[in-house]
Structures are given as C-alpha cells and as structure tokens.
Amino acid sequence: MLTYKTQLTIITTNYNILTLKLNKLDNYDMKILGILTINCRTPVRQIGKKVSLSGVSVKSRISKMERAGVIQNFTMKVEPPSLGYSIIYLIVPGDDEADIVKKLKLIGEPFFVVPCLGDITACGIVVEKDVEQKTELVKNLINNARIILTLDPKESEFRADLTKTDFKILEQLLKNPREKIDSISKSTKLSAKTVTRAIEKFEANPAIQFTIIYDPRKLEKFVAFALLAMVQSDIKKIKAEIETSFGDYFWQVPFTAKELLVLFMYSDNIYNADVMRHKIKEIDGVVFTEVFFPKKITMPTNWISNSIKNAALSQKLHVSIKQINT
C-alpha cells in the first residue's frame, strides 16, 4: 500500500503534468486567439471551419486558454473619434503603470496602457475638444513623452452613428461581449430582432470591435508584437502589400491613421519578428518602422460607459456627437 507521502507525490506530479499540458499553446491556439481578437463573438463552429477543428475542440481550447490566463477577458474596443472624441497616442518612458495612469487621467481618459520591453509604455488618451492644448499638457506632465500621433474626429474615417437603442445594447455588451442574443433581449427589454440588428451593425463597423485582452507573457514559444510604420505614399496600397506577404502573422486588423500604419502581429521568436520588421522597412514608401513587444495590456472602458450615460440623456433617437461627449 502506498504511503501518504508517495500518494501526495504522485498527485503533485500528475497535477504538474496536467498543468503543463493545459498551458502549452500550439499553432491552432494562436489561430483561434487571432480570430477572437478580431471578433470574439465568432461562433465556435465558424472558428472550427477556419482552423480545421471541430467546434467542440475549439470550445475546449478557448476554455483551456481562459483557465490558463492566456485569455484574460473578453471586451469591446470602440475607436474614440467615432464618438466625437480626440485621441493622443504616445510613448512614455518607464513602466510604472499606476503612476502613468494617474497622469493620463489628468489629461483625459486612458484608452489603452501597454507596458513594453525596453522600459517604455505605449498609451492612448481619450480627450474632449482642444487636442492641441491637451497635447501641450502631456508634454508638461509627463517627462520625455514621445507623441506618436494626435487624431481628432474630423481627421478620422471612423464613424459610429448610433441610436439610443444601440447605446443601450452596447451598455449590456460591455458587461459580456459574448452574451447570447436572447439574454441581451431579456436584460434590455428589447426584441431579439432589434438586438440582432444592432450587433450586426456593430460587427460591420470597423470603429467597433468585439475583442479579447490576452496576457503576452503566457504565449510561451510565441511572441506578440506591434509594428509601427510611418509611410509617405499610398497607405492603403502599402498595407495591402504587407498583408500579401505577412497576412498569416496578423493578429488583429491593421490600424491606419494619417501617415501611421500599426500592424498587430505574432511570431515564433523575437528574431523572426525583427526579420519581418526589416522586410517591411524595405517596402517602397515606408520611411520608418519600430517594434513594440507588450508585457501587459490594459484597455479601460470607462470612457465608453460615460458616453453611454450621456447618450441616455438625449431626447432624440439618433444621438448627436455633441450629446455624447458633453
């Protein structure tokens, strides 16, 4: 008969083996994560068809990644200019997230805060009106902050055009972006047809995204990175050229604004990521590239919640931008 100590050793060993298997990611997992970052409401059967797995297997893998902490939470991303806000993109020296967020809140609302390798933090700040004045405030409050881009609603292609009903559904989806239509209908007291139409409207709009927050540190043998490229010619043409060569490594829809192109990608190691950067840098029209390797990703939605509250005060069904960000 096995002693208690031996039994405990066997249990511990089996647990460690199970944990190792649980946390081990493969190319299927990375493809699933890529689909979820683009639209986390994608049905598991549909994901399965895209990655050549059964829906049951996809569901199991998603659950595995949630338990392992690879997928931290499901969330919604809304581009601030689509709701009438300006945004400031910047790089801040240091990675003291709490201190950085404290300073960002003196300027506006944090859009994202991403500490990266190299003791730097990539940030986005949602601001109301007078973006130039807020940019000067950034320079005064945050030493050596590097402004990458400022964007106001007039300069952006993003548009939301949401109704009070849309905002009501958006409020519910912020709590759980993957919530079933029947459940949303019950919570909002709106018909399933109305909810379905709103979700289809959101999914068709590039300004609104159902996505995930993942932990870059738990990707194991894979490396997530953002590649920033400044271009001086046709940005759509350059994006298409990059997508042709490197589309298999895209992890999200590329972001474009003015002369800025941001690619969200992954690789099997940091060296191949650098090789991709060099090849993209050689493309005609690309004048500068820079790579950021995230250590942690935070994407607050407080500013969206505030917009929803303001929209609820509107006397009209179609909510004007002025009503949203007052």
TrEMBL record:
<protein>
    <submittedName>
        <fullName>Transcriptional regulator AsnC family</fullName>
    </submittedName>
</protein>
<dbReference type="Pfam" id="PF13404">
    <property type="entry name" value="HTH_AsnC-type"/>
</dbReference>
<keyword id="KW-0238">DNA-binding</keyword>
<dbReference type="Pfam" id="PF13412">
    <property type="entry name" value="HTH_24"/>
</dbReference>
<keyword id="KW-0804">Transcription</keyword>
<dbReference type="InterPro" id="IPR019888">
    <property type="entry name" value="Tscrpt_reg_AsnC-like"/>
</dbReference>
<dbReference type="InterPro" id="IPR036390">
    <property type="entry name" value="WH_DNA-bd_sf"/>
</dbReference>
<keyword id="KW-0805">Transcription regulation</keyword>
<dbReference type="InterPro" id="IPR050684">
    <property type="entry name" value="HTH-Siroheme_Decarb"/>
</dbReference>
<dbReference type="InterPro" id="IPR036388">
    <property type="entry name" value="WH-like_DNA-bd_sf"/>
</dbReference>
<dbReference type="GO" id="GO:0043565">
    <property type="term" value="F:sequence-specific DNA binding"/>
</dbReference>
<dbReference type="InterPro" id="IPR000485">
    <property type="entry name" value="AsnC-type_HTH_dom"/>
</dbReference>
<feature type="domain" description="HTH asnC-type">
    <location>
        <begin position="25"/>
        <end position="86"/>
    </location>
</feature>
